[in-house]
Specification:
By secondary structure, the chain is an alpha/beta fold. The chain has 10 helices and 4 strands.
C-alpha cells in the first residue's frame, strides 16, 4: 500500500501502524486527512479504532480497506464513522479513487457492496463470498454451523465425497489452509 501511495503525486504518507492502539495514537498525533484502515488487526480491530479516532480527531476521514466484501461489515464501519469501504484486491486505481473521494468527504463503497445494497432483489449471499458457487456457499454455511461432512451431505442430499470436494474448493477459493480458518472468515461475515 505504501509503495502505491508513495508513487502518487499529491499524496504523502505521514505514518503507518500495525495494530488498533498504534493507529489511534498515530492518527491523533499526526492528524492526517485520511486514514486507510484495516478491519482485521490486533489491538481492537478497525471498527473500534475508527470510533476512537473520530471521537478525538473528528476531522480525520477514514477509508476501510479490507479483504471482506461483506455488507454486514459495511454497516459496522459506517456506524463507526468510516466514509468509504473497499476491498484490498480492488485495482490500484479504484483504491486511489476511493482515497480521493474520502478526502473530498464523499462516501464510497466497493462495487460488489454497492450492487448488493442497490439491488435488494438480488441474492444477498453472493457479495459475501462471490468466488464461491451456491453449493460451495451451502457447504461453508454447514461448516460454520459446526456440521461434519456427513451431516452436511445428509442436509444437502449429496455424497460425503462431494462435500469433501466442495470443502477443498472452498479452502482454495478463500485462500485459507484449514477448515477452522474458513469458518473464522464465515463467522466474521456473519454466517453461523
Amino acid at each position: 500500500m505504501r509503495r502505491l501511495l508513495d508513487a502518487v503525486p499529491g499524496i504523502e504518507v505521514v505514518g503507518e501502524a500495525a495494530d488498533g492502539e498504534a493507529v489511534v495514537a498515530a492518527a491523533v498525533e499526526l492528524n492526517p486527512d485520511v486514514v486507510v484502515m484495516d478491519l482485521d488487526m490486533p489491538g481492537g480491530g478497525g471498527i473500534a479504532a475508527t470510533e476512537r479516532i473520530l471521537r478525538t480527531a473528528p476531522r480525520v476521514r477514514i477509508l476501510v480497506l479490507t479483504m471482506h466484501a461483506v455488507s454486514t461489515r459495511v454497516g459496522e464501519a459506517v456506524r463507526a464513522g468510516a466514509r468509504g469501504y473497499i476491498v484490498k484486491d480492488a485495482p490500484p486505481q479504484d483504491i486511489l479513487r476511493a482515497i480521493e473521494a474520502v478526502h473530498a468527504n464523499q462516501a464510497i463503497f466497493d462495487p460488489a457492496i454497492t450492487e448488493a445494497l442497490i439491488e435488494p432483489g438480488r441474492n444477498p449471499r453472493r457479495p459475501l463470498f462471490p468466488q464461491l458457487t451456491e453449493r460451495e456457499f451451502d457447504v461453508l454455511e454447514g461448516m460454520s454451523d459446526g456440521a461434519t461432512n456427513d451431516a452436511i451431505a445428509l442436509q444437502l442430499g449429496i455424497s460425503v465425497k462431494t462435500v469433501q470436494n466442495h470443502v477443498s474448493s472452498v479452502l482454495l477459493k478463500l485462500g485459507v489452509a484449514s477448515r477452522a480458518a474458513a469458518v473464522a472468515l464465515a463467522r466474521d461475515a456473519g454466517i453461523s
